[in-house]
Design brief:
Blueprint (H helix, E strand, L loop, with lengths): L2 E5 L7 H12 L4 E4 L17 E3 L8 H4 L7 H5 L9 E6 L13 E6 L10 H7 L8 H18 L5 E4 L2 H11 L3 E3 L13 H12 L1
Parallel strand pairs: 1-2, 1-4, 2-3, 4-5, 5-6, 6-7
């Protein structure tokens, strides 16, 4: 069985990349695809030298610093990956990764860290914080986010099974896509935490109340 792992992008080694690390450990022979890879050398250990297939955004001017400015091109870019030879596609999605094109003979499982917050329920907060909600740029930006919502909703139909990283994200998936999602919690380095009996007692009391 040929397997492809699709991640939005590699820029830092944080939460979603740690999930990808565990997916790679489960399927070490899988091929890896991403929009662009600007991950520093110091953070690349979890990839174990694996080759990464990138999109045309990788080679666009100043992408390493201003990759967010290429958001309008990301849906187009993710659709350019030819995954027709793969039996199983696992997408790690917080932006556009689930939008890869797949056929009826392929199984597409999407692990969703979150639907695009800035395009859905947090749009107004995003516009306010980025100062894009007013002025000449406001309406082009709102139109772009509108188009992203239409694309994001449509591409949910290409996913066979959704996985959420929490019950909260599962509810957001249902709200946005009207799709059920199985919750599989992300990896936690439990060895870095010490057991606290009082926290267990507090949790039990909270449930009783």
């Amino acid at each position: 069985m040929k397997i492809a792992i699709v991640h939005d992008w590699f820029v830092t080694y944080v939460g979603s990349e740690k999930v990808v690390e565990q997916i790679i450990s489960l399927y070490p022979d899988a091929d890896l695809f991403t929009l662009f890879d600007f991950l520093p050398t110091i953070d690349r250990g979890f990839l174990d030298g694996k080759h990464i297939n990138t999109s045309f955004i990788q080679h666009l001017p100043f992408a390493i610093k201003y990759y967010r400015q290429y958001l309008p091109l990301m849906p187009l870019a993710i659709e350019q990956f030819d995954l027709s030879e793969y039996d199983l596609i696992i997408s790690s999605n917080h932006a556009v990764a689930k939008g890869v094109l797949t056929g009826p003979h392929q199984l597409h499982i999407s692990y969703v860290h979150s639907p695009m917050r800035y395009a859905w329920d947090m749009q107004h907060q995003y516009l306010s914080e980025s100062r894009l909600g007013k002025g000449i740029i406001a309406w082009p930006t709102r139109w772009l986010l509108h188009e992203l919502r239409l694309w994001d909703y449509r591409t949910a139909n290409g996913v066979d099974h959704f996985i959420a990283n929490s019950e909260f994200i599962a509810r957001r998936i249902w709200k946005v896509y009207r799709r059920e999602a199985k919750v599989i919690y992300p990896p936690v380095q439990v060895a870095e935490f010490s057991f606290q009996e009082k926290n267990i007692r507090f949790a039990r009391l909270t449930k009783l109340n």
